[in-house]
Amino acid sequence: MYIIFLIIVTISLIATAAYFSVFGIASMFAYNYIPAMIMGITLEAGKIGVAVYLFKYWRPMTRLFKSLLITFLVALMFITSVGIFGFLSQGYQKTSEEFNVISLELKTLEDEYKSKKIRMEEINAQIVYLPSSAITNKIRLSREFSDEQAEIRDRLAVIEPRIHDLKVKRLAYESHIGPIAYVARMINAPQDNVVFFAIMVLVFVADPLAITLTIASNMALIHYWENTRTRTSQAARSPMGFENYLGRIWTTAVNAFRESARQRRVRIAAKKRIAAAVEAAKSKKKTVKRRTA
After folding, report:
1. 248-271 burial code (b ≥16 CB/10 A, e <16)
2. How distant, in Å, are the alpha carbons of 280, 281, 283 from that of 293?
3. Average pLDDT score over residue span 268-273
4. Does the model's pTM come out above 0.85?
5. In the listed set 205, 233, 261, which residue is the last one of a domain according to the structure?
6. Residue 63: is it exposed, middle or buried by C-beta count within 10 angstroms (0-12/13-18/19+)?
7. Pick from 233, 259, 278: which residue ends a domain?
8. What's the confidence (pLDDT) of residue 137?
9. pLDDT of 138 over the 80 cut
10. How many domains are contained in the chain?
11. Are 9 and 85 contained in the same domain?
């Protein structure tokens, strides 16, 4: 049961690492997306093939061939790790860039909103601070600033809902990068550096672990097959196992003979019943003829 679990975990890890690596390599060559994806798939298959070959044929290989295959394996692991890094960093960069764009636009609109509100307060203050005796001047100032006030009010009516929408969007993006931002604040480090080291840890764990589990699965399967063959051969060579085998053959033969005898008895009994019925019919016919005569 553990072997099945190990195989499932190995296949899942290999598939996940291959998915990240293939799409990461393809995203780095966006103008040749499909060819780059095909190349990534073949590199992933070649990496697993080289690792299994090294494990199975380590002894008969020469040192030169071993060194060559190990070099290729390390290079393939590096290439696929770069693909995984590109895939993970691309997702973070997309979220981070959109968050920065929203934050910048929000800051610009908030500054504009603040400046418009200040300007509106200044205009109102100029009109209010005039003495009550200068009614003519108040009317004149109100007329002079009426167009500007209308423009400010129209602009504020546009800015306010946009600021609200941007705040909602920013909260949604903060929920995506919230854990990263929290860790960055906790260790007092830049957020990009935290993401970089986190991705590097994932890269250095995923690919080597996939290779290690592939070799471990092969070792477990070989050990299981060898134990199964040993138990089978021991059971066939042991007297008790041979006697049990002969006993099963004898029981099967006896049961077959009994079934054949039973069927033969059934057939004989059926023939006797048919013969008796025929004889009874003949005797009945003879009796009828005699009575008629």
Report:
1. eeeeeeeeeeeeeeeeeeeeeeee
2. 20, 19, 16
3. 83
4. no
5. 233
6. exposed
7. 233
8. 66
9. no
10. 2
11. yes
Alpha carbon 70 to its chain's center: 29
Residue 240 pLDDT level (bands cut at 50, 70, 90): very low
Residue with tokens 């002969």: 246
Residues in the chain: 293
Q: Which of 156-165, 191-200, 284-293 is the least confident region? A: 284-293
Return d(Cα 37, Cα 31) in angstroms, integer: 11
Sequential DSSP letters for 30-78: GGGHHHHHHHHHHHHHHHHHHHHHHHHTTTTS-HHHHHHHHHHHHHHHH
From the list 171, 172, 191, the residue with the least C-alpha distance to 181 is: 191
182 C-beta neighbours (distance < 10 Å), count: 12
How much is the average pLDDT of 36-58? 87
Q: Domain range holding 287?
A: 251-292
Q: pLDDT: is 189 or 127 the higher one?
A: 189
